[in-house]
């Protein structure tokens, strides 16, 4: 009897324990598990900035190696500058010649104005002589031949004034509403000078963003063309996680829901704060090189996965930097299901940008002004 009571006590305890565990599991599911979507099919993604030259040339120097972190605007690769330096010097000479040619046009206008005034003076004198002799010829004080000569001089003087006016108008048409610096002939060569200036600056290939060097292929002495990838920069502050969830687990996932993310790189001891910012428009299989063709007789249904994009807290990334491709574990909290399924149209402002390439033209206008002043200072223009 005592053994039966003991057995019943053990069985009863086990049943009670199982019931308690079952209730605990049910309560945990009721309040926590049903509001969580977990996956370990998740990886870090980010921008990969491929550095390529903008002009052709031979590589003369490299300043970086793989795994180095570089600041924005640092010189990464230098190309041979010989040809571009000569091109800039040639453009400078052409600009100086153009400026002097235009200065000559302005000087010719001044000369033609003086010539016109001289012709007008000659015409006035010829008119006075003609009028004087016209009165005298009636009185017989001067011969008819002398009067006819004065008449010829007047006609010639008038023609001279008309010709001078024509030359002046033609000269003015070449410089009207311009200065030496804004004349079309100078503007044309200024554009060529700017192009040569930019090409010379492009011999120094700079980092457009702050990031880590990866996949360096460039070597000193190699020829580089605009389409050649020299290396890559990976901005470690521009990364996110793509969690590949089964389609059956996305029913309650909405944009803006919080997520807990851990990295295999650092272990479960460090947790990243994340947020759902997007759900892919297509499954991975559809976006593959050879999309599936299911219109066959031996079709077998396979559960598909959709990439969910998770943004990470920048402060967490700064504390524990991640690398592209490392494995992650993601748990999405689906308590709040009021969020949208599709993102709103993005603002017009760019998400990522750089001003490094805009700097290539800096300084060219100051140098152009210096060349113009040097070659036209004596004209006052």
**Main sheet characteristics:** 6 strands, antiparallel, barrel
* Shape designation: elongated
Mean pLDDT: 84
Number of helices: 6
User: Segments where pLDDT lies below 50 for 5+ residues?
Assistant: none
Structural class: alpha+beta
Global Rg: 42 Å
Arrangement of strands in the largest sheet? 1-10-13-12-11-14
Order of helices and strands: HEEEEEHHHEEEEEEEEHEH
Report helical residue fraction: 40-55%
Would you count the extended β strands for me? 14
Amino-to-carboxy terminus distance: 125 Å
Report the portion of residues in β strands: 15-25%
Task: Please provide a written account of the structure.
The structure is a single chain. The protein is 41% helix and 22% strand. The protein has helices at residues 2-31, 82-139, 144-175, 184-201, 314-319, 364-376, and strands spanning 36-46, 49-51, 57-62, 69-70, 75-79, 204-206, 211-214, 223-224, 231-234, 239-246, 258-263, 267-279, 305-312, 327-333. Helix 2 (82-139) packs antiparallel against helix 4 and helix 2 packs parallel to helix 6 (364-376). Among the domains are: 49-80 and 206-232, OB fold (Dihydrolipoamide Acetyltransferase, E2P) (Beta Barrel), CATH 2.40.50.100; 83-200. The model has no long low-confidence stretch (mean pLDDT 84). The longest helix has 58 residues, at 82-139. By secondary structure, it is α+β, with helices and mostly antiparallel strands. The strands form 3 sheets. Strands 1-10-13-12-11-14 form a 6-stranded antiparallel barrel.
